[in-house]
Amino acid sequence: MDREPTMAKNFLFSATQWMHIHSSLWDVFLALLGLFVFRCINERLTNKGPMLWPVLGILPTMFLNINDMYNFITRALSRAGGTFHHKGMWMGGAYGIATADPSNVAYMLKTNFKNFPKGKYFRDRFRDLLGDGIFNADDELWREHRQVVKAEMHSSRFIEHSLQTMQDLLHQKLLKLTEKLVRSGDSFDLQEMLLRFTFDNICTAAFGVDPGCLALDFPEVPFAKAFEKATELTLFRFLVPPFIWKPMKFFGIGYERALKEAVGIVHDFAEKTVKSRRDEAWKHGSLCRQSDLLSRLIEIEYTGGKGKKLQFPDKYFRDLCVNFILAGRDTTSVALAWFFWLVNSNPEVENKILREINDILSLRDETRDRK
């Protein structure tokens, strides 16, 4: 009989304790929810840029606009007056400023360039792909890269080679491919075609290798595909905190595994190109007949460069190849795609351009007839 009151007391005590614990958790949940809502409302009222969520920062906003990223950024910059602050997930180390203000850009890239290095945050994420190349270097290393490359890139020989390379690609490949596509009557992706054009152009002009992306059958080039994939997956590191992507890299899982494979293909292509050119220089004692950038730099190394014996490791040239492809591929092709879109959107400008082209061609014909 005495056990029943004891059991009842224990039950009541346990029930009371359970309610106390869970009511406390419920209070905490409601408090956190209220704080979350308050922060969201305050953020939306005070920040003209993209929504920065508590804890997650700009990540949810970016993922919601992942399929319309360029228009999303354009709208955000427009609303914010050309400049806005952003930050990533807590403890991710991602924070910065996005700007489209010409005065800000000039200040950072020209007036006070030395005060705006890329920094460890940027270099860590691009190191696997770009290595220590010029677009992933700061301070003395950047100046060293610039000094070595600048003289050759501004030489009349390289400029003439680049011009001839572009003319050959334009007349022998791009125009023929365009004519074929027009005759077929099928629609095609202009930006994809321009991307192939700029990829072939930068590889041929800078390294003397034609990947063949502009072949008439639109082939899938493993190196070009791997380079695009490596670039896209590297950018994921700017969205994912380091305490997530670094363990993924260490264990070789998820997108980090695919990134490693893509970077391997890119580096293998670059290393084979460098080895082939070095072997050619060793065999013939000179690369004086070659005018591409890689050959000229190797020529400097083998001839001593005005009395100075320069020794570049293979990794230096490999990183050079990868960095210059990144510089000359997407930038030019995207600019050309936007140019043609603007021309198509403004018929009066298109007519003026066509008239000017016809006038120039007529003058050429007249000059040719006189000769």
From TrEMBL:
Annotated Pfam families: p450 (PF00067)
Keyword Iron belongs to the record: yes
Molecular function terms, GO-annotated: heme binding; iron ion binding; monooxygenase activity; oxidoreductase activity, acting on paired donors, with incorporation or reduction of molecular oxygen
Transmembrane segments: 20-38, 50-66
This protein's UniProt keywords: Heme, Iron, Membrane, Metal-binding, Monooxygenase, Oxidoreductase, Transmembrane, Transmembrane helix
Gene3D superfamilies: Cytochrome P450
Alphabetized PANTHER family for the sequence: CYTOCHROME P450
Family recorded in the similarity comment: Belongs to the cytochrome P450 family.
Protein name (database record): Cytochrome P450
